[in-house]
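Case study 2.
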Amino acid sequence: MPGVSARGLSHEARRQLAVNLTRVVTLYRSILDAYIIEFFTDNLWGTLPCSWQEALDGLNPPQLATLLLGKPGEGEVARYRSVWPLTLLALKSTAYALAFTRTPGFQTPSEFLENPSQSSRLTAPFRKHVRPKKQHEIRRLGELVKKLSDLTGCTQVVDVGSGQGHLSRFMSLGLGLMVKSIEGDQRLVERAQRLDQELLQALQKEEKRNPQVVHTGPRHRPHHVVRWVDPTALCEELLLPLENSPQSEARLLLTGLHACGDLSVALLRHFCRPEVAALASVGCCYMKLSDPGGYPLSQWVAGLPGRELPYRLREGACHALEEYAERLQKAGPGLRTHCYRAALETVIRRAQPELRRPGVQGIPRVHELKIEEYVQRGLQRVGLDPHLPLNLAALRAHQAQENRVVAFFSLALLLAPLVETLILLDRLLYLQEQGFHAELLPIFSPELSPRNLVLVATKRPLGETFSVLETEDS
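Prediction:
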């Protein structure tokens, strides 16, 4: 998806971008704030301008991917069957123009061409227990952290919210960095320690089998700490150096791979401490940000009208636009799930009006079910009588609007990156207001990992070396 590059924007350009984003988000807030499961109960289609309805009505999923989301299939050329209203074209152009690009500066990696389950850029011991998406992420972020550590002279990396320790293991046992891993879940830490030992044994066996491959660098096992990081207070454990790193010489680099909600905000606040020299953070789960406290952080965005981002907007910003566009191109039957769920909502509200938007546990193989079968199972999932009399004619009428439901959801997805851009831009401005140097770099392939913008911050300017951080090693 096209967009604006965050790298190289002046402070004033970033401020103006924030102004433009708040204006656009305010203008289209009704789309962003809508719940697709209320498509029928709230007549969401009727909230769109009539000219938009005429342009979008009848478009099949591949056409929506090509014409609206700008994701044509291979060899496909965008051909409009009618003249679209200028307001809809303006929405599309604005969404493209104001969102931070998620396209990396390097060529999309070919690491999974030979085997979709195994990155060719990682040796077998580092791939074990790690899914392909995570293989790509730990390699790319780990290599960036190594470059950033070398550039800033850091003596220790602190991996916050380390989970099972996949990133920490790669940075320490693969790249030779001194790593402290901080995770609040005792069970995850215990598993991480078991996986550390397993990896060490695998590496030792590999060296015995291939004695000609000599491991030259240091091999440090990550140091694991069980600690919940409070986003509202400093965590002294996070800032303490390891025993073999003297306090007076400690220069820390903080990192977090998809630091959830307020955890990414906590990283920014700890970065302000003098012992921290650099930061590389990939955030996610924006809907879990505290309100207030997690957003806005910068004085500039806090002073803008229309800056408010309620839960629904932040939750929508976490959806995978690229993945959904691919689903549209394939036009699989799984796309009807939103339509079925919206139809179920109408039945729920007729039966129990005060029950709104209840969570429905996953119903397997939705695409194989008739709509009435889905509704019956859904009623049971939310504690209602599955044998309630159903208006089959109304359900069939809802099912006939499946493409409209998909079109509305696609509109919301088109706008969602603007919300993510505003959240990340606020963080950039916050760091700049503190006198620090910060950039956003697309680091992962967005098809594998849509939350792929890493916030890189330093206490001293790095100049053009930020471009070195973004490139893919050969």
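DSSP finds 19 helices and seven strands in the chain.
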